[in-house]
Amino acid sequence: MTAPEAAPGNALDRLAATIAARRGADPDTSWTAKLLANGPEKCAEKFGEEAVEAIIEAVKGDRARLTSEAADVLYHLLVMLAARDVGLDEVLAELDRREGTSGIVEKQSRG
Fold it and tell me: 46 and 36 in contact (C-beta within 8 Å)?
């Protein structure tokens, strides 16, 4: 499957749109479709693996490798969200809701 025409917005918006478009693609030709076909649990597992890899690079201090791993983390986060039908727009709305609130106050509000 070819990539959809570039969506307006930032790179995360475009990536989320591509992930959504690949949901029904052939898992033999699309890594995203393969991940989604394996279910939400496998998507979460893969996200966790990528997060650990990013942590390792952050500890090592290798900027280029951390940048690469961070991109992998963002991709796999969006795949994991898509596997549970949570849209990037919902996450961004939650961030907007929290904007201007102290992190300490916000954490306390969650009990």
Answer: no
Return the residue matching tokens 């942590």: 55
Rounded Cα distance between 69 and 89, Å, is: 23
- Identify the residue with better confidence: 7 or 102: 102
> CATH homologous superfamily of domain 11-86?
MazG-like (1.10.287.1080)
Please state at what angle helix 63-83 crosses helix 88-98, rounded to 10 degrees: 110
Mind listing the pLDDT tens digit for each residue in 44-59? Answer: 999 999 999 999 999 9
Sign of the CA dihedral running 38, 42, 44, 46 = negative
Q: Is 60 exposed, middle or buried (0-12, 13-18, 19+ CB in 10 A)?
A: exposed
Q: Give which of 84, 74, 77 is closest to 40, Cα–Cα.
A: 84
Higher pLDDT, 111 or 28: 28
Model confidence, pTM: 0.83
In the block, tokens 């991940």 appear at: 35
Domain chopping of the chain, boundaries: 11-86
